[in-house]
């Protein structure tokens, strides 16, 4: 097998793939077709490789069980799924897409979004979807927001719409649609410190491990701040 490529070589190859300009260091980007563009690209590329096998719907309890089933050392496993987290360590919530006209949301400042820790509120967070992504996420003259409504708060569409009038915009939305359900991992105080003392024989990666807030949110927040 060929030796691994140096990071400097990879960066030079990346630079040649930009059709118009190369982004500045520290900047972020998004896909015109959303993250599904990346997923489809990876599936297509992996499907062309003879030494790659993609398995869906597999039930694997641990990296050690996976290594044993595949006949490889556990040190070769890269684990990007939850591990050792009971159900109470996840927030089960509904996700809604809500759209307004620019005129109706003129008083809503551009930004990343809002967290609502009040347990009596049916909404726990509002993401300014069309503000934080460089590629269009809403038709011209409109803004798109994504709402998170935890099941523990017993939210209904009526209570969510009533809360929106108080915390976001008094106008009626031009779009209001539930787009899915998610289970989001929680990161209690001291979680990152606990990772420092954990040195497993396998490699761990992904949002289930280090958390979206450690990387993605910080980078996006810096880009949003630059707009003001």
What can you tell me about this protein's structure?
The chain is an alpha+beta fold. It folds into 2 domains: 7-85 and 189-225, no CATH class; 91-185, Protoporphyrinogen oxidase, mitochondrial, domain 2 (Polyamine Oxidase, Chain A, domain 2). The chain has helices spanning 7-15, 36-46, 63-70, 129-132, 157-167, 191-196, 207-210, 212-225, and strands at 78-79, 90-101, 113-115, 125-127, 142-150, 175-185, 203-204. The strands form 2 sheets. It has a 5-stranded antiparallel β-sheet with strand order 3-4-5-2-6. The longest helix is centred in the last third of the chain and has 14 residues, at 212-225.
Count of beta strands: 7
Total helix count?
8
SS-derived structural category = alpha+beta
- Overall shape: globular
Order of helices and strands: HHHEEEEHEHEHEHH
The oligomeric state of the chains shown is single chain
- Work out the helicity level: 25-40%
**Could you tell me the radius of gyration in angstroms?**
21 Å
Total domain modules: 2
Largest sheet: 5 strands, antiparallel
Low-confidence stretches: none
Separation of the first and last Cα atoms: 49 Å
How much strand? 15-25%
- How much is the average pLDDT? 83
Instruction: Trace the largest sheet across and list its strands.
Output: 3-4-5-2-6
